[in-house]
């Protein structure tokens, strides 16, 4: 039982954890975006999305926000772009608005609208951001509670017994953040990405059992099931050093 060590700590809600992750896995397919949604956009493309997400990684760092906020920001962007046509002129507006909404949801002290006006070099006014916030929340039906890569990653660290292994956790997190910039990664569910990232990171540091039975059981995947995803993450890692999009690499 990977949760028994925290059984006495009410903050870990150990009696509910298994049910929570069972629920996450059940609703994940319903909340995934179509991996080809960008083909329906007429004025933007996957490269523009990558530039936006890369810039938002920098903004997230400057504002010193929690990891959850970045993951939710990218999720909101993808779900909104799947639902609405967006011009390239307004793509950055969608990005800053998504981070504003995610910050309000995740942070104790969220940046204010004026901070996002400033960080976007006054490309948009306060009213434009607030108006886009209304459009976005209505489009997404105010559904901000979604299974996140961050949730699955934390669970898999625990299942793999590496929660206190900085080398593995930092590398796995790095791989996942690289994947957020890359549109083609949407072909993989968040839960699979998290499992593949933990496996790939352990493989890279020479772990004796990089995909243990416990990790397989709690992630819900076999090693065969995550192989393609792991190869994809490896390719992103190799490309990262020479990419023009450097925010995650520098971070």
From TrEMBL:
Keyword set, alphabetical order: Cell cycle, Cell division, Cyclin
Residues covered by the Cyclin C-terminal domain: 147-249
A molecular function GO annotation: cyclin-dependent protein serine/threonine kinase regulator activity
InterPro entries associated with the record: Cyclin, Cyclin-like_dom, Cyclin-like_sf, Cyclin_A/B-like, Cyclin_C-dom, Cyclin_N, Cyclins_cyclin-box
SUPFAM superfamilies in alphabetical order: Cyclin-like (SSF47954)
Entry-linked Pfam families: Cyclin_C (PF02984), Cyclin_N (PF00134)
Domain Cyclin-like stretches: 54-138, 151-235
Recorded superkingdom: Eukaryota
GO biological process: one example: cell division
Family the entry assigns: Belongs to the cyclin family. Cyclin AB subfamily.
PANTHER family per UniProt: CYCLINS (PTHR10177)
Protein name as annotated: Uncharacterized protein
């Amino acid at each position: 039982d990977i949760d028994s060590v925290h059984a006495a700590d009410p903050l870990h809600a150990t009696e509910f954890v298994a049910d929570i992750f069972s629920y996450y896995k059940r609703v994940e397919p319903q909340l995934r975006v179509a991996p080809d949604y960008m083909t329906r956009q007429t004025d933007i493309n996957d490269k523009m999305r990558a530039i936006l997400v890369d810039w938002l990684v920098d903004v997230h760092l400057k504002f010193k926000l929690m990891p959850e906020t970045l993951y939710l920001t990218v999720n909101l962007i993808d779900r909104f772009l799947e639902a609405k046509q967006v011009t390239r002129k307004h793509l950055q507006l969608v990005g800053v608005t998504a981070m504003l909404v995610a910050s309000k949801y995740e942070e104790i002290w969220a940046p204010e609208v004026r901070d996002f006006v400033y960080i976007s070099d006054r490309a948009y006014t306060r009213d434009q951001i607030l108006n886009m916030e209304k459009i976005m929340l209505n489009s997404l039906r105010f559904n901000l509670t979604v299974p996140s890569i961050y949730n699955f990653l934390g669970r898999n660290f625990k299942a793999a017994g590496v929660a206190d292994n900085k080398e593995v956790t930092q590398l796995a997190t790095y791989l996942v953040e690289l994947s957020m910039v890359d549109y083609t990664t949407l072909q993989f569910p968040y839960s699979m990405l998290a499992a593949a990232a933990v496996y790939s990171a352990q493989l890279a540091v020479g772990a004796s059992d990089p995909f243990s039975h416990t990790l397989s059981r709690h992630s819900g995947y076999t090693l065969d099931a995550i192989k393609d995803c792991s190869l994809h993450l490896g390719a992103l890692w190799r490309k990262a050093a020479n990419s023009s999009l450097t925010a995650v690499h520098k971070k």
